[in-house]
Fold this sequence. Notes:
By secondary structure, this protein is α/β, with parallel strands linked by helices. The chain has one domain (about 5-255): TIM Barrel (Alpha-Beta Barrel), CATH 3.20.20.70. Helix content is about 45%, strand content about 15%. Strands 1-2-3-4-5-6-7-8 form an eight-stranded parallel barrel, surrounded by five helices. α1 runs parallel beside α2 (about 45-55), α5 (about 105-120) packs across α7 (about 140-155) and α7 (about 140-155) packs parallel to α9 (about 180-195). The chain starts with a strand and ends with a helix.
Amino acid sequence: MRKLLVAGNWKMNGSVDEAKALSAGLLAEISDGASYDVAVFPPFVHIPAVAAQLQNSDLIWGGQNLSAQAKGAFTSEISASMLAELGCQMVLVGHSECREYGHESNQLVAEKFKQALSVGLTPILCVGETIAQREAEQTESVVWQQIQAVIELVGMESLGQGVIAYEPVWAIGTGLTATAEQAQQVHQFIRSHLSENDDIIARRMRLLYGGSCNGSNANALFSMPDVDGGLIGGASLTVEDFMAICQQADALSNGE
Ligand code: PGA
């Protein structure tokens, strides 16, 4: 059975004190040995403060992006090893905001995925279509091209060391959630395509849903057979909102 993962992407929000308060609040609510995994992705400069709070707990922290290069003259970039040094276990790659505003191509995202693995970080590969692509019935081809670029660079075995987050661009931060059925349809497509390459890896890989996920829709989404948790933006910014989602993951993991 795949363990559910609830991941909070804090984006560019809050202060150091707020990041500390949020992580301390989550720590107080989530018991060690929980039946589901929890990860938070603070802004880079807040990671040390969050790490200090969460060290010695089961909660995972990570970066929202990383450089495709290992080191050197790349002003403003953050390397995989810098994140690992701060105790990060995971890192987001290819978030749609980075693809759009940072003009990150499928190829560049694949290079970042590879860098993450090279230092033992678990990359969460974000994929998803725009509304125009959905309306043109290109959802599956767009999503598969995004995944295929990673397989071509690192191979299926290495892809399987990461997590995939399906995040329809039209659902991110808009309040327009994909229905549980829409999410399941794409997740099932991804898993069945992966299984054509390697069935064992396809069954093992966690596929998260992201895009206006909240305490009210998490249960329906996470109940879907191919949805293994969520990547949460807006609803990860308060303990109350994030815990409302975690509680659904907890109940489902315990068969309730
Ligand atoms: P949202 O963001 O939950 O605010 O829609 C999700 C994400 O961008 O990861």
